[in-house]
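Input set for joint prediction.
Command: fold jointly, output tokens.
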Amino acid sequence: MLATLAQAVVNGLLIGGIYALVSIGVTLIFGVVKIVNFAQGEFLMIGMYLSFFLATRAGMDPLLSLVIVMPVMFLIGMAFQHVLIRRVLGLGDMPQIFLTFALSVLLMNVALLLFTANYRTVQTPYTDAAVHIGAVYISVAKLIAFVLAMVFSGALTLFLQSTDIGKAMRAAAQNRDVAMLMGINTDLVFAVAVGLALALAGAAGALLMPFYPVYPAVGQVFVLMAFVAVVLGTLGNVTGALIAGLMMGVAESLGIQFVGADSGLIVVFAMLLLTLAIRPSGLFGGRAR
Amino acid sequence: MPLGLRSGFAVDIAVRVLLFAFIGVAWNLMGGYAKQLSLGHAAYFGLGAYTSTLLLIKFGISPWIGLVAGGIVAMLASLPIGWLCFRLRGPYFAIATIATAQVFMLLFLKFRDFAWGAEGTTIPFLGNAPLMMQFSGKAPYYYIALALLVLGLVITYTIERSWMGNYLVAVGEDEDAAEAVGVNAPRIKRDIYLISAFLTALAGTFYVQYIYFIDPNTAFSFNVSVEAALVSIVGGIGTLWGPVLGTVLLEPTSALLQSWLGASHGGVQLTVYALILMAVILWRPTGLLGLLTDAYHKLVRRDG
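tokens >
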């Protein structure tokens, strides 16, 4: 029983690292640009396909493909901000929600047209490898993904805290107009924020590739988790999103283990609804919304 | 056949246009006027569908009664759902509503003893039985869908011209400001959610009676939630005729695309929908109706 519990928690934490990366991306865009990116999951999907084709066509290990996937996704993110998001800033909820929502539907269905609905996997030397700690079994691929996810989250936090553009980003997040008056180039700051968020989504995709199949709707699973995590972790709070992302992983895993194989999502949604009922401002900080 | 529609295909498209226009009208009351952008109206569509089907199959109760019962169940469900989701605003309200619809789908997928689980069930065909909402031809379905749409439009028209319409628009424009001038925003949001949920449930009952089949993926389909919002936005959000106009454009387009390309090109329909939606948002946020109004004003100005 204890071993089962430990196993479920470990499994949850490992996949929770991926949820955390997607959640941090969502919360970063929300915090800085003030829009919710419904297409974040599809950018993870694009990262996965990129990594998949680099692996199958160029023989590149998915982990090595990070050095291509992340910069490419960063540039796509800057373009996304410049071409699409910029045009709906300050226009109210409807255009902001439905622009990124439409983009999500578009990317998913274009992927369906291009790649069909087939599940595709990449086999790596470490895909089936595992280490045992006591009775607990740890997949090497998932462990690597988790560790790198934590490294990227830490690097982002460090970036926001200590670089000039990171500070400018936090300033723009607090008050866009004042930041502009202080001479901050908000267009650039926004583009970098969206770029970083997409680079994280791309990273999550490449990290998933050794142990998770890619298909056009794969992003939906992760983005739902991310949304719940972001609500749970207080909107716009990077550390909150990180912790909540890990929590979502554990909650889902415990749900699968103790309620039933198809109950992971029910547990996650129940957590969301419970949080809303008890503490609508999220667990970390009391910012109203 | 109504309106000179000859083929069964044409009547089928007409029924779908009327039905989705009606769902759009129901969504638009809340999403358009009060700007509470729900992406979870499938919850009520599905509750309506399941209520009437359960009553029909387990108790032999006519779907006409089930229609109203489903609406009432949806209204009752909208109270706790609204209580939870209205704590959030804007995009997070939308996300919370997605979650509620998904929860219903998962619940109905899981509890197979209660409502046939994931396999769903076909609705027994009783021949031509108008009292059981079953007809041998397609024409009666057309008129029922038309009646539903008229009902939705009359309700919208009445609300639009009442104090409630003004309050809804005030809440939609700026909720805090509306509250500051004495609008009871939580209450008005709850009330419009009740109406919107009730109407959406009617569509659910009608739809499963029309296709003679129900399963959780059909009844709580995310596509229903999306299409309800989509037709309203494309046609003209927060307007009486917007959802109708949007459906008239989108639904036949998708039906034709499907019949031309067949099922092998899954994804084409939604790709086209998404492109239209993005184009509307970027270039014409007032929708088709706004486009037509502008064109009309230009013409009139040129004439005068």
